[in-house]
Amino acid sequence: MHTVASADGTPIAFARTGSGPPLVLVPGGGANDHTRWDADGVRPAFAEHYTVYAIDGRGLGESGDADKYALEREFEDVAAVVESIDEPAVLLGHSSGALVALEAAVRTDNLRKLILYEPPIPVGDHVLDVEEPVAEMEMLLDEGQNEQVLVLFLREIADIPPEEIDALREAPNWQRRVEGAYTIPRAIRGVSEYEFDPARFTAMTTPTLLLAGSESPPFHHAATEALDEAHPNSRIVTFEGHGHVAMLTATDRFIDEVLTFVREAD
Length: 266
Fold this sequence. Notes:
By secondary structure, the chain is an alpha/beta fold. It has helices at residues 42-47, 71-83, 96-105, 131-142, 146-157, 162-169, 174-179, 184-192, 218-230, 246-249, 251-263; strands at residues 2-5, 11-17, 22-26, 51-55, 89-94, 111-117, 208-213, 234-239. The chain is globular, with a radius of gyration of 17 Å. It starts with a strand and ends with a helix.
């Protein structure tokens, strides 16, 4: 593992594998660290063509933490990793990691392309009602029931269907996610308080691919469409018949869409 200091001095860890142009991976919420990309063979597939930088989020894996949490620090964490690379990188984020990647993109000039898979951006009437589930999560954490916190997040917040949760349970990184479940409530609150201002992204020139699942909840569809409307250099690719975790349910298609976009001329 390698580390870089974020803006507030917190060490942020990342695993670097492969060779070639840089590709930075930001995992989604639910206490995912860099191993999230290994369960489906995604990172090894990318590492055949690129130097892959897979990040441990703040407070997870080998990354450090701070006494006080703010979602903005995570934006700075990813920007710090991107800035540490000696050539422009491609940045890929999933779910809340896509929101973090989006905001990191406006904090660095060292990007070549951006790939975002359903960032949970509250738009219009599509907002996250999180107070009740977060309160329940905090109670469960006090009782030491970390796994129930993770399951509650997947079911109530991420809206992952039961069969996909079962598949996630079988992934090698499940226990690591259970151990990091204490980070889930704070991250949910941070995302729920995020305010999307489309005007901030109308001047973005970075070519951006917006990935979406046809079976994902309306919340994710609305967010993806709002971002596509605001961004002058983006396009949407939809995984028909799949939802929020197509890297798990349609792994080959996910890998192919990412590699095709990265290889296109800028």
